Amino acid sequence: MNETYFQKGFGLKSEVGPLLARTYQSAAIERLKGLGYEAGAGGLHFKLAKEFGFCYGVDRAVDYAYQTRRQFPDRRVFLSGEIIHNPDVNRRIEDMGIQILADSRDPVERFQQVSSGDVVILPAFGVSVPELQHLKSKQCVLVDTTCGSVLNVWKKVHYYAKDGYTVIIHGKHYHEETRATASQALTHKDGQYLCVRDVAEIELVGDFIRGTITGPELMTHFVEAASHDFDPDVHLQRVGIANQTTMLMSETLKVQEILRRAMVDRYGDAGLESRFRAFDTICSATQERQDAVLEMLDAGGLDLMVVIGGYNSSNTQALARMCAPRLTTFYIDSPQCVTDAGIRHRAIGAHEETLAAAWLPAGDVRIGITAGASTPDSVVGETIERILALRGRTAGDLTQPALIAEGSSTFAKATADKQSFA
Q1: What distance in Å separates the CA atoms of residue 23 and residue 349, rounded to the nearest whole number?
Q2: What 3-state DSSP class applies to 251?
Q3: pLDDT at residue 338 is higher than 80
Q4: In this predicted model, what pLDDT tens digit does every residue of 399-409 receive, in sequence order?
């Protein structure tokens, strides 16, 4: 193994495992799972998504960060940005003496503090090619926790760019993962990329391909979201779709179909195969969490939804966006958002928290719970415990739910004299 580049940890899983378990697991979550993902107390009925919270890639990244601190107790250890998008996890990592470096598009500026022999952990999102090259030139020790799903997207990007296709990335152009993915395209001669955030932006690309808007008109919307010498007239003739792995799957499919349809309208069905490529690169964990939420929503019977995860977590945002049109949804980034005064939350599209004072109705309430792939069980469990405390109950009071009246969003009484859960 290269002494300055590590991708598989340090064989210290058994040493850091107990600490990780104490830090990130939750007795409340284990109890709720043991009760079939549904349980109640004090008139509150919780329904937990069957898939939620930490995915394999996040779990691995956090594990490697703890192993790194154990492996290099006397060295300076840095993190190239947040290891994942969860404030609780990043705070705990900083408490171990690992410094999270501020974001910057300039690798020289971003890694100015790093010296030869220092240790730098690369986050689950990966880093851009110029950042990696700069770090290697500084002769520091690199611990690479890049998620396998991200690496899979990079393979597809190389495949497109090598064959002369411009990479269209469905993602946020400023997100660490998207920037790293885009940089992969530029490693090939004449490689190009364009990042589209949503359906509205890909519609603009479609308008250009069909000839209803000009190249300069199109590029006014993508000044910071395209390769530096991007020319729509040249670089939108052959395209390949990739995506930030944590985007909403249904939206990625729409983006793909809109672009495919535009290419057909411009060049005809016969020319599609040589001008358009697409692969499914949404990570399986993201898809599983979205599917689990959709299953909950389709089952009905919930009064409100609580979605837990960092406000800068794209996969958590996607879960909240799925829930908000269907029922009252509170998107929170930590258990501390639940207080006696109400719940602090961030509405979809908002940039600041607001306080909902009367968010929890009196009487029986059915609450759906889910969390993004970067949210540990400990955070989800503490959130549930804080909600229970509003009714003077604890996780130890959770019991199997009473019968639910069909089509009702309130609890049915199991008996005439039983008004709530034990």
Answers
A1: 32
A2: helix
A3: yes
A4: 987 533 333 44
Higher per-residue pLDDT: 22 or 417: 22
Q: N- to C-terminal Cα distance for the chain? A: 57
Residue reference for tokens 């359906």? 199
Q: What is the pLDDT of residue 279?
A: 83
Pairing of strands 5-6, 193-196: unpaired
pLDDT in tens, 283-323: 889 999 999 999 999 999 999 999 999 999 999 999 999 99
> Alpha carbon 374 to chain centroid distance?
7
What token pair was written down for 415? 């008996």
With a CB cutoff of 8 Å and minimum separation 6, the contacts of 159 are: 240
Question: What is the arithmetic mean of pLDDT over 170-195?
Answer: 97
Q: Is 307 helix (H, G, I), strand (E, B) or coil?
A: strand
Burial of 308 (0-12, 13-18, 19+ CB in 10 A): buried
35: which residues sit within 8 A by CB, 6+ positions away?
A: 398, 399, 400
- Asked if the domains 24-55+285-397 and 56-146 are classified in one and the same CATH topology, the answer is no
Tell me, yes or no, if 177 is annotated catalytic: yes
DSSP string, 45-80: EEEE-SS-S--HHHHHHHHHHHHHHHH-TTS-EEES
Catalytic residue among 51, 131, 176, 177: 177
The average pLDDT across 74-102 equals: 95
* Whether pLDDT at 58 is above 70: yes
Task: Choose which CATH entry (1.20.200.10, 3.40.50.11270, 3.30.1280.10, 1.10.287.90) describes domain 56-146.
Answer: 3.40.50.11270
CB contact at 8 A, 381 and 17: no
193 in Cβ contact with 167 (< 8 Å): yes
What CATH number labels 24-55+285-397?
A: 3.40.1010.20
Contact indicator for 233, 215 with CB cutoff of 8 Å: yes
pLDDT of residue 412: 34
Average pLDDT along the chain: 93
Torsion from C-alpha of 407, 410, 412, 418, nearest 10 degrees? 180
Pick from 131, 1, 19, 129: nearest CA to 66: 19
Amino acid code (one letter) for 412: A
CATH class of 149-282: alpha beta
User: Structural domain boundaries of the chain?
Assistant: 24-55+285-397, 56-146, 149-282
Query: At residue 89, does pLDDT exceed 90?
Result: yes
